[in-house]
Amino acid sequence: MLHRVRVSHLQVSFNGEEVLNDLSFDVSAGEMFAVIGPNGAGKSTLLKSILGLIQPQNGRIVLDDESKTVVGYVPQSRVIDDETPISARDFVSLGQLSGFFPWPSMQERKVLREIMSFTDTDRFARKPIGKLSGGERQRVFLAQALVRHPDLLLLDESTANLDPDAQERMMELVQKAASDWGVSVIFISHDLELVRKYADRVLLMSRGFYKTGTKQEILNDQAMLKNVYQSISSEADGALQQKSPSAGLSLSASPR
Ligand SMILES: Nc1ncnc2c1ncn2[C@@H]1O[C@H](COP(=O)(O)OP(=O)(O)OP(=O)(O)O)[C@@H](O)[C@H]1O
Ligand SMILES: [Mg+2]
């Protein structure tokens, strides 16, 4: 099977603190690949390394046919001022303005319409992005990442703060992009129910511990999950313990 991304022996440290150490895995074309693990495990660091925003100390990240791979990314937090005057449509189109001319071509306009309809953001296309609800904004962010027709889509907790219905709708969209266009998706989530429903394979990570497997292999191993989610909180200081990473997790999620 075609590998879209191959991560080999990745090592990343910040000021001498090792965050990722000898992490290896690969993701295939059209695969929904979930990354789970407690706060501070290095999940966002992993995505930023794949994007080239962080320079690893060691290891390799190889994108399939690197020069042509288009990567879409929705970061973990994106602060938009309520008064931001840009419309949802213009915000989405920012994802595609890469050509010589600063205005969109006919083709770009067509793609923009298609993506906005696909993500159901056309309903509020003219509204200023600052006036949209959190869930509407998340869909706009996804639309902006999709408008370039990425080969690889990196989602950092894109469904956090969405109501359960909106979470499902967003994941269904992403799954459709994977199955219809062969987009490989790496998504970080703390919602194990959502992971169980939408992931093909899962990477469970903690500091220095990594396990990749099918969603059944990872999510049905309650003892391993518990160990991993407790490993960082037991090492951490009181502040982190108060905000226990496992608090919001449904570890008792029943196997389907
Ligand atoms: N640029 C940076 N400089 C220094 N330390 C950093 C930097 N980026 C991340 N870190 C540290 O690396 C560790 C992993 O951070 P990361 O954001 O990857 O965690 P995460 O798994 O995404 O956590 P969460 O679930 O809370 O989003 C944290 O301890 C963080 O403080
Ligand atoms: Mg993160």
TrEMBL record:
Recorded GO MF terms: ATP binding; ATP hydrolysis activity
ABC transporter domain: residues covered: 5-232
Alphabetized SMART domains for the sequence: AAA
Database matches in InterPro entries: AAA+_ATPase, ABC_transporter-like_ATP-bd, ABC_transporter-like_CS, Metal_Ion_Import_ABC, P-loop_NTPase
Signal peptide start and end residues: none
Region Disordered: start-end pairs: 237-256
Bias kind Low complexity: ranges: 244-256
Keyword Metal-binding: no
Keywords: ATP-binding, Nucleotide-binding, Transport
Protein name: ABC transporter ATP-binding protein
Organism: Sporolactobacillus shoreae
